[in-house]
Amino acid sequence: TKIPFRLNQNHALITFEDEEVAQRLLKKGKHTLILDKKTTDMKAIPFTLEMGIKFELHVTISGKKINVSEIPDLSIPDDWMRDKLELNFYKPGQGGGGEVEAVKYDRQSRTAVITFLKPGAAQSVARCSKYPFLASGRCFRLSVSPATDMHLEKFQVYCGISKKTLLLKGIQGMDDDEESIQDMIEIHFQRPSNGGGEIEAIKYVADGATWVCFEE
């Protein structure tokens, strides 16, 4: 997940390609920027982001099970409803189906899980998002979707500290537009004579505030 950071007015964030450059500039601390014969002193400081997380989400689509919803609330016993659902999905001619192994029906939520005997039967049924259901002399439309199994793997929490990024504070007294000042900051910190190096990303805010997102 991306970690958001609030970048306030007259602040800038610079990410260097080389970690050593960022650490060297942080150690120096104070830096002076000259723009159109005007100077401004700024301070390079480290900062800590909020915690971030990363994980893998694994989804397995069942070839034998389907989820059924929007089942009509009929005044018949639950076992009768289960039998009707089994018979309804046993008919391959109505958009797919086949021999049913089990029916798990929940009247309160008006849902059911149908398990077919043969693998692959669920995919043919799930192609029809609305499946016909004949009961009490009427034809209803059931919502059908493939049953899935989801689980997380490799869940990790990591600390949001960027060793290649530094925060600049106190950039004031500049009348130029935001883009020009950002360009001058970038030029200043790219020069080896200033202890700088190649810059990967930069963002300066002259007025208001913005959110900047960091990846791991």
TrEMBL record:
One example of a Gene Ontology biological process annotation: innate immune response
InterPro entries attached to this UniProt entry: Nmi/IFP35_dom (IPR009909), Nucleotide-bd_a/b_plait_sf (IPR012677)
NID domain span: 12-101, 112-201
Assigned keywords, A-Z: Cytoplasm, Immunity, Innate immunity, Nucleus, Secreted
Signal peptide start-end: none
Subcellular location: Cytoplasm; Nucleus; Secreted
Alphabetized Gene3D superfamilies for the sequence: 3.30.70.330
GO cellular component term, pick one: cytoplasm
Family stated for the protein in its record: Belongs to the NMI family.
Protein name stated in the entry: NMI protein
